[in-house]
């Protein structure tokens, strides 16, 4: 079952530090870790799931400890955002992704068009997702509560090869969907729309 709140933390790593992560990380029933597989600059991704705000307060020490443990491995400071669950065309059986791969898909939408955007994505993006349920284990839509990059965050979990997963999101049909989104709903410049794939550690 999807978490009410998801804390997404991204830690930029110095080159060559990936082998040291296993000895420093401690996955649990409430958190999980992934490593970016795209680009030269590697990034550690941490998911923390919460049922409510009181749990976040109780987890403050753990959030500090992980940053302290990784200090020597990081090339920059951690980027954290808290997002709230909205809906999912393919529901998750767990409170955070536990698949071999996960893709973060961020979209910043003009506020006055939020309602229209949600109706539009149900008939476009979500239809593509549902038609690929043989490849996608879960696909959840969240919205930022606290974030330096506000907006919608899609969390897509899958275990097939990334190339196979991406076929339906790079074909001509989906490019038309992206064009529609850019023309009608998306704001925020280059940061208004981004995607990145990570592999489970």
Report what the structure shows:
This protein has 201 residues and is α+β, with helices and mostly antiparallel strands. It has a single domain (5-200), classed as Alpha-Beta Plaits (2-Layer Sandwich), CATH 3.30.70. Helices cover 27% and strands 33% of the residues. It has helices spanning 21-24, 53-58, 60-70, 114-123, 125-130, 162-166, 172-184; strands at residues 5-12, 31-36, 43-50, 79-90, 101-107, 136-146, 152-158, 193-200. Strands 1-3-2-8-5-7-6-4 form an eight-stranded antiparallel beta barrel. A hairpin with a 6-residue loop joins strand 2 and strand 3 (43-50). The longest helix is centred in the last third of the chain and has 13 residues, at 172-184. The chain is globular. The two termini are 22 Å apart. The relative contact order is 0.21.
Q: Kindly identify the CATH topology.
A: Alpha-Beta Plaits
Number of domains: 1
Number of strands: 8
Give the C-alpha Rg: 17 Å
> What top-tier CATH class fits best?
Alpha Beta
Q: Order of strands across the widest beta sheet?
A: 1-3-2-8-5-7-6-4
User: What pattern of helices and strands is seen along the backbone?
Assistant: EHEEHHEEHHEEHHE
- List the uncertain runs: none
What's the rounded overall pLDDT mean? Answer: 92
Protein name: EthD domain-containing protein
Organism: Chania multitudinisentens RB-25
